[in-house]
Each structure stands twice: as C-alpha cells, then as structure tokens.
Please model this.
Amino acid sequence: MSWNSERARISAVISVLALLLSACTSTGSGSPDDEPVEIDAYTEKISQCLTTVDPAATGEPLTGEPGDAVTTDPEAGLAYRTFGDPWQPFDLQWSTPELQLAFDGGQMLLAETGDDGTQNWAVISSTRMPNVVGDALVTDLGCLGALAVADIIAMTGYRDGAAGTDVVEQGDREIDGRAAWLNITRYKVIDDRFESKSELQGTLLVDTDRGVGVVYVTVPDARGDLDGVLHEVFESVRVL
Model:
C-alpha cells in the first residue's frame, strides 16, 4: 500500500460504496420511545446502519489455528496470527478520512519500491470502530462494513486511477460464536510507478464486547505469492 497524502477522488469512493452496499440491507435507528440523543458526525455518517437488535451469528464459521505467535489488539478485542521474517512490525500510524478508523499496530512487508522511491507495502492491521451512542445501539455489520471498506479505499490516494474492482468474497461470518462480516476484493490499479497492477484487500468486522473490531489485510500483486495470507489471518482471528 502506498501512503500518499491525497485522498481518492469522491467518484471512485462512491462507486465502491455503491457496489458494496448493494449486498447489504439497511435498517432504521432506535425505537420511537428512545430518549433523544445528540448525533455526532460519526453517528450521522453510519445512521443507515443502526439497529436495536444484537447482530446474530448466522454466517459461515471462520475456523483455523492462530499458531504459536499472535498479534493481540485489546482495543479491537481481537487476536490474530503473526508471521515471521520478512514481515516486520507495522510502525505507521494512519486513519481513514471519514470514519477516522485508526490503524496503528500489526505487521507490514515491503512488496516493491516505485520508480520515484515510493514504497508499496503489504499490511496486516486492526482497529476498533468508534462508539455509536455509547455502544447503546448495535450496528448492521454488513452495512457498516461497506462504509468501512469504502473509507479505507479513500485513504489510499494512489488509487485515483483505479481501473475496476472484483469482489472475491463477501458476506456474513461467525467467529467464536460472534457475528462477523467479511469482504475480500481485488482492486485493479493504474499507477505507472509500480509493477503491481492490482491489490488484494480484505476487511473483517467482528462484534465483540468492546464494540466492532476490524482486521484489515492488503497484498499488492507484486507479491501475489502472499495472497493466501488473507485467509490465514482471517481464519485465525479470535475474540478476546
């Protein structure tokens, strides 16, 4: 992943969001009897995803072995597999432009270096979705996931010239008896600086006692031999 300061063009984000939301069902907000609450900017953005029903774990279970080494993210309420060399600690700090999802831990691997010296990284990281009215309202994971995926795409400025997307896998999942939602998409990229012409990205949301945990994995196709890492990571996720 290239960390340019530019955001992706609004049109590209809207097209990705429309594609993802087509598979999600949006529901209304709380009961009419609920006390009025102050709606902050974040809540307003995801209001279409709010429900008053705890998300049920009805999806296909994700099962796998986390292995001897794991990354533990207490904030996200999740743990997942850690890989050895050439993977290294993820030492960047970044957040998405709209939902302000803050990723600051995990692992990274240098996939390639562009003609201008820009580094393109494979990344494994996690975060927690900010509270929604103090977590009093539970979100529709599929709807929320679509917003999160589009916001992550907006964060990566070099996809201004995105040539298209192919959704590889998307839908409800179950982890440790908890509701989860997974999206894996291949993004075709036009960027002459890099050998990579596409990037495989996966985003997993999990309902936990700490809110909604998010695990994000991306692999540029210059290191297509690492595509399997996405499933290895997602199948290893455990709720703390």
Remarks:
- Helices lie at 10-21, 41-45, 141-155, 229-236.
- The chain has one domain: 10-239.
- Residues 10-239 form a domain with the Protein Transport Mog1p; Chain A fold (CATH 3.40.1000.10).
